[in-house]
Write a structure and sequence with these properties.
With 256 residues, the chain is mainly β. It contains five helices and twelve strands. The chain has helices spanning 47-53, 184-187, 235-238, 244-249, 251-255, and strands at residues 2-12, 15-24, 56-70, 73-81, 86-95, 102-114, 122-137, 143-151, 157-166, 172-180, 193-201, 213-218.
Length: 256
């Protein structure tokens, strides 16, 4: 049973601060006895130590700046503690024409592994990750496909395939699979990273309008191959409402 308090502050146009703190009200993580058998750098498989030692934690503390130097081109620069396991610097650029179903961009992240207690300290592991990102929104069933090609946290290189469907309620359901130059034997049980996810908009349950979502992901196993850093404010998500497709799709609700 874990309680998290999140806050976002807009300091100036395009400049914002995002923070989150957590409190473990009850857990039995001390019963986890298995240790990682991964032959790769332990970029995710040290999850046991984070769960056991990060009872009262700083989940994130990030400053981000968004801007558009040219029409249809978005930029983001972020710094701070991005998630429970990593912090550092991140930059991203996205080309997304207003009336197009296609978008592409890239991101580069220089991150360092956080201490298990998830306070302000870091461990020795540092890595640079980055991906070229391609998106296409199909005209039927509100299907979105995403392909990410680049280097992951364990310095393995490969591609992630992601497909999801957006329903009229705002709920998005999808799945992903990642294949890198790490062999199935090196990856370990599961052979490659894959999973499913669900995103639920809070406005479904609240009497007020909000763009906040609850995101839930499930992967059969947490291994070290094919892992990305979780940076909030990805440009494709941020720019979703600034497209012709979004305006047309939500026109009925706007008139209501």
């Amino acid at each position: 049973v874990h309680l998290t308090l999140n806050a976002n502050v807009a300091i100036a146009p395009g400049l914002g601060l995002s923070a989150g703190v957590g409190k473990n009200l009850y857990h039995n993580f001390q019963k986890i006895k298995l240790t990682s058998d991964s032959v790769l750098p332990h970029v995710r498989s040290d999850i046991k130590h984070y769960l056991q030692q990060g009872e009262d934690n700083l989940t994130r503390l990030t400053a981000s700046y968004f801007f558009m130097p040219f029409e249809d081109i978005y930029f983001r620069v972020s710094a701070g503690y991005f998630e429970e396991m990593y912090g550092g610097f991140s930059t991203e650029v996205l080309y997304r024409p207003f009336d197009s179903r296609f978008a592409f961009g890239f991101d580069i992240n220089r991150v360092r592994k956080r201490e298990f207690a998830q306070r302000l300290g870091f461990l020795d592991y540092r890595v640079t990750t980055g991906h070229a990102n391609l998106y296409y929104h199909f005209p039927f069933y509100n299907l979105l496909t995403e392909v990410n090609i680049g280097q992951y946290l364990a310095e393995d290189r490969g591609v992630t395939y992601n497909i999801s469907r957006l329903f009229d309620t705002g709920v998005r359901v999808g799945m992903w699979a990642t294949f890198t130059d790490v062999s199935a034997e090196q990856f370990g049980e599961g052979s490659f990273d894959k999973g499913i996810f669900l995103s639920i908009p809070f406005h479904v349950f609240l009497p007020i309008s909000t763009t906040a979502h609850g995101n839930f992901g499930f992967r059969p196993l947490t291994r070290d191959g094919g892992q990305r850093v979780a940076v909030r404010g990805r440009l494709y998500d941020v720019s979703n409402n600034a497209t012709l497709g979004a305006v047309v799709h939500k026109w009925g609700a706007l008139l209501d």
